[in-house]
Amino acid sequence: MNPFIVAVVIRANELPRAEAARLVLQGRWRARSAVRAEFEKGVQMSPFDHYMYVLACGDGSLYTGYATDVQARLAAHQSGRGAKYTKSHAPVRLVARARFYSKARAMSAEAHFKKLSREQKDKLLERSKLEPLEDVLRRELPGFGEDTAAEFVCRSLANHVDPNYAAFMRPLVPTVDPRRLVGVRTPQLRKIARELCRRGDASDFMRSLPHVLFEENQVHAFAIGMEREYERAIELYDLFLPHVGNWATCDQLPVRVLAEQPARTLECVRRWMDSGHGFTVRFGIGVLMRLFLDDLFEPRFAAMVAAARMPGSPERPEPESDAYYVDMMRAWYFAEALVRQPMAAWPYVERRDECALLDEWTRRKAIQKACESRRISVEAKERLRSFR
Hints:
- This protein is mainly alpha-helical and 388 residues long.
- The chain is built from 21 helices and three strands.
- Strand 1 (50-56) and strand 2 (62-67) form a beta hairpin.
- Helix 15 packs antiparallel against helix 16 (278-291) and helix 18 (322-340) crosses helix 19 (342-350).
């Protein structure tokens, strides 16, 4: 196991070293097996292939449709299984196709193209013999116009896909469908988010939830972090958080703007921690850890985290469950508090049994995380180990 990979995993999610190595090795095997199975089935792997296609029918009429695999769709039409219209107007042949990077954009092109007269359609199809049909449609299809914000994001992601990075990331975020993670590195995601925020239609992308891809969610999170107006930022957090389904997006969601109004932010934190949605609860705890463990700290915040469990949480939460990710964040909070607010944090890891302030699983995880930290003294680590 490459020690750099293990270090990245631990730093990203505060996982114990052995657990991180196990997840990487086991997850990579699963991800590769899943990808191999998909190819064996002949499944279309790219999430960026979306087409509007035009067929010429036997009677000279045109048929317009949407597909992710135009050749497979054409074969279905030619065999009489594609649509009632083409079955009754056979034979059919492909006249043109326009490639887009999102389903919404391709279907929008289809809808606008169908509204044209036959003469208008023929003019656009004639021009597509000299340049890609998608370029013709962007320039000349009435009501269609330039790329939408969502299309811009997907096209930008498609230009920076790294299969090796995807294979590395998939086991680290097991709650994400491997087919929805394409492998775009964080610096590029931040760059795409900055470019998105310069667009006049960025808010359209921010409202188009849920997204399909893990990387779309990452871009969305980084774009929220670029919002400087507090009220608007709160609206964006509240809109986005219910759609967060993995620790990476949750933990990388920036919180700098929330530091501007601590009292208001605490009200939001309470609401998020009471939401019942696992990653929203985790985010609320993360805000307390990132913004309220130094000068703004109050002992009641530690008590809030200690009480913040998912309904019906078992003694040992199942890996990849909401309870697991919430309790792991609670443990991370107290491990961090041992460094930044030791007087307040020690009782939570010291007390056991009937005097316990934390459930036993989280208490032990907090001790484990603290013992892995370089900011905890050797003496303190020995003391912590005695409480296991």
